């Protein structure tokens, strides 16, 4: 129990630098973060990157791995060079994005049905790369077996880690992560393997962890966005030294004392204020906050009531009042 590590998966439009910094300030348990993917790195200067997103001066988290979505070795190497100049030690390649406008162009998980393209890409990358290189992928785009020949290719290269989300691209985020299939792949993979998918509670973590032993690294996703205490809750198991506690499905705020509601409130307000500062007071921040609330609502007893209130908001003042009401008013 002492040995597992937890990371937070990247979410385009949610887990940007302000999110990561504010999250880290308010909650523990996450050992490693990833940036949402970068694309279109066409020039040789770091200025081409959204600098705040990646500049170490704007990022307070200790372990951060920048991610790129690309099928062009030259672009990946350009990104790697810029990341190295900024002091990063690892980059991650996104081979998991399932959105049709990406995958239809044989990018993201759309590359997985084409082993020869994957091989050519990795050949090009590993010929020159001089920092750690990891990959995040799915079981396939159309079929869950597409990963098998791809793993043979991955095994030819010294990947620093392989993160597998056991869904296929066509599923998007629907249905269940196929934990059994992931477990079958474990003996085939040479690189350190990271499990990602459907960890939403301590109970689901324990169930999945048992199925995928001896994997020791787990990437949290929507479960952590919905319940920002999740990594702390799972982390407590480390302290419990091998003892598998009986734990039920967690965790509505109303069930917890111990300042939990206050901590969540402070986090949400801090994130909003930070985003507002970055956006120069623009109501654009509402989009990102709503996106977060589409997950965070599950911390509340009646998520749909919360969501109906949040989704119709279109002014900053209205947002601020609604959030105050949610935490101090009649709704909780
Ligand atoms: C809105 C949204 C944006 C995402 N953006 C990224 C991304 O930029 N890079 C990436 O590798 N995964 C991305 N993901 C996938 C998540 O990191 C994660 O792999 C996925 O949610 C599965 O884990 P979960 O079942 O624990 O949520 C995104 C997912 C969603 C729903």
Question: What is the structure about, briefly put?
Answer:
This protein is of the alpha/beta class. The chain is built from 14 helices and 9 strands.
Report what the structure shows.
By secondary structure, the chain is α/β, with parallel strands linked by helices. It has two domains: 5-239, TIM Barrel, CATH 3.20.20; 253-328, no CATH class. 42% of the residues lie in helices and 12% in strands. It is built from 14 helices and nine strands. Strands 3-2-1-9-8-7-6-5-4 form a nine-stranded parallel sheet. Helix 1 (17-26) links the parallel strand 1 and strand 2 (32-34). It is globular, with a radius of gyration of 20 Å. Mean pLDDT is 92; it is low at 241-250. Flavin mononucleotide (FMN) binds at residues 9-12, 36-37, 67, 94, 96, 136, 165, 173, 177, 196-199, 220-223.
Bound ligands: flavin mononucleotide
**How many DSSP-defined strands?**
9
What is the residue-averaged pLDDT?
92
- How many domains in all? 2
| Strands ordered across the widest β-sheet | 3-2-1-9-8-7-6-5-4
**Unreliably modeled segments:** 241-250
> What structural class results from the helix and strand content?
alpha/beta
How helix-rich are the residues, as a percent range? 40-55%
Total number of helices = 14
Beta-strand fraction estimate: 5-15%
Shape: globular
Rg calculated over all Cα atoms: 20 Å
| Annotated CATH topology of the largest domain | TIM Barrel
CATH architecture of the largest domain: Alpha-Beta Barrel
Order of helices and strands: EHEHEEHEHHEHEHEHEHHHHHH
**Class of the largest domain in CATH?**
Alpha Beta
């Amino acid at each position: 129990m002492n040995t597992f590590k937890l990371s937070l998966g990247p979410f385009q439009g949610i887990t940007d630098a302000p999110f990561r910094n504010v999250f880290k300030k308010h909650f523990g348990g996450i050992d490693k973060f990833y940036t949402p993917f970068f694309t279109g790195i066409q020039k040789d200067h770091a200025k081409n990157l959204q600098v705040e997103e990646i500049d170490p001066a704007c990022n307070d988290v200790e372990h951060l791995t920048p991610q790129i979505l690309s099928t062009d070795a030259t672009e990946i190497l350009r990104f790697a060079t810029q990341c190295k100049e900024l002091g990063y030690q690892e980059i991650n390649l996104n081979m998991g994005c399932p959105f049709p406008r990406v995958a239809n162009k044989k990018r993201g998980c759309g590359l997985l049905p084409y082993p020869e393209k994957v091989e050519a890409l990795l050949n090009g990358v590993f010929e020159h790369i001089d920092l750690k290189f990891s990959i995040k992928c799915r079981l396939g785009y159309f079929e869950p077996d597409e990963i098998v020949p791809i793993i043979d290719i991955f095994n030819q290269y010294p990947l620093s880690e392989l993160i597998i989300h056991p869904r296929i691209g066509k599923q998007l985020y629907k249905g269940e992560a196929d934990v059994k299939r992931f477990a079958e792949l474990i003996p085939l993979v040479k690189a350190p393997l990271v499990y990602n998918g459907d960890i939403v509670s301590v109970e689901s973590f324990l169930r999945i962890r048992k199925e995928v032993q001896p994997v020791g690294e787990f990437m949290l996703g929507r479960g952590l966005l919905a319940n920002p205490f999740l990594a702390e809750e799972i982390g407590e198991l480390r302290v419990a030294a091998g003892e598998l506690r009986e734990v039920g499905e967690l965790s509505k705020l109303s069930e917890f004392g111990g300042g939990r509601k206050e901590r969540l409130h402070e986090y949400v307000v801090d994130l909003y204020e930070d985003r507002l500062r970055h956006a120069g007071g623009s109501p654009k921040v509402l989009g990102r906050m709503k996106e977060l609330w589409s997950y965070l609502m599950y911390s509340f007893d009646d998520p749909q009531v919360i969501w109906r209130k949040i989704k119709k908001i279109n002014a900053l003042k209205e947002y601020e009042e609604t959030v105050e009401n949610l935490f101090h008013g009649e709704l909780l």
